[in-house]
Amino acid sequence: MIEQVLAAGFILTTPILLAAIGGLVNRQAGIVNIALEGKMLIGAFVAVLVSSATGSWLVATVSAALVGMVIGYAFSLSITRLGANMIIAGLGLNVLAAGAIGFIMSIAYGSSGTLRLPDVALLPNVLPESIVAVPLVGPMLADLDPLTLFAVGSIAVLPFFLGATRFGLWIRATGNASSVVRSVGLNPKLVQEAATAFAGFFAGIAGAQLALASIGIFNEGLTAGRGFIALAAFYFGRDRPWQTAAACLLFGLLDAAQIRMQTVGLPPRLIGALPYLMVLVALVITQLRSLKRTQ
């Protein structure tokens, strides 16, 4: 049972981690991206459509990432150029994404709630099936897909990107002291727009991983709040990449555990609330730590 929970938890961590990477960079630039959930949903929808049409998981993933990036950039313009409140704009995009996808499904495919398309190419496993024989971590490694490796590689590179590259320094300066960015001849709004497009790119990939990791079916409730869990993860990790990754792994394992616990007869609704309860606990702990530092 432990091996199964670890394997499922590691895979369920991937979309949360990908979305959290984008959201972390976006917050470093001074924008709290509430719209991660909607962008993940759009990414999942695009991935299923393109995967069915082309038979390629790679083309589907790239398409989802690019669509997410374009939507992220358009979303940033409402904040940086039109002065919209970032929280309201983010919630609005989430509602718009869900409504637009539901409308397209009903008009174009005559489907409501769930979309099943033929010949959807799923994410391949990176390692051979024989790896499952390795004790404890075997099942986890056997289910390893390319996007999970991409997520791990991204979180490993992120500290260097933010701390040692020119663009990373621009991002952090924009979120903390935009006057510094202006003093070197840059427009902080352009940096925020680029960071929001970056977040959309990663949210699109997160949606693709959700849709193509196992079943290849799109459902309107596919994201199930994972965009908000990603938001809580980088808050809990205090915008630090490795702490954020640890928080994502915790939430992924809790998600896997609650799925497993439903098979032992406990109330499904109560168990399903476990990851979100942990999000609330994480946010409370984060706030208490902030208050303690200010005293």
From TrEMBL:
Cell compartments where the protein resides: Cell membrane
InterPro entries, sorted: ABC_transp_permease
MF GO annotations: transmembrane transporter activity
Taxonomy of the source species: Bacteria, Pseudomonadati, Pseudomonadota, Alphaproteobacteria, Rhodobacterales
GO cellular component entries: plasma membrane
PANTHER family, sorted: GUANOSINE ABC TRANSPORTER PERMEASE PROTEIN NUPQ, SUGAR ABC TRANSPORTER INTEGRAL MEMBRANE PROTEIN-RELATED
The keyword Transmembrane helix belongs to this UniProt entry's keyword annotation: yes
Pfam family, one: BPD_transp_2
Membrane-spanning intervals of the chain: 6-25, 32-50, 56-75, 87-109, 147-169, 190-211, 273-291
Keyword field contains Transmembrane: yes
Keywords carried by this UniProt record: Cell membrane, Membrane, Transmembrane, Transmembrane helix
Protein name per UniProt: ABC transporter permease
Membrane topology label: Multi-pass membrane protein
Major place of residence: membrane
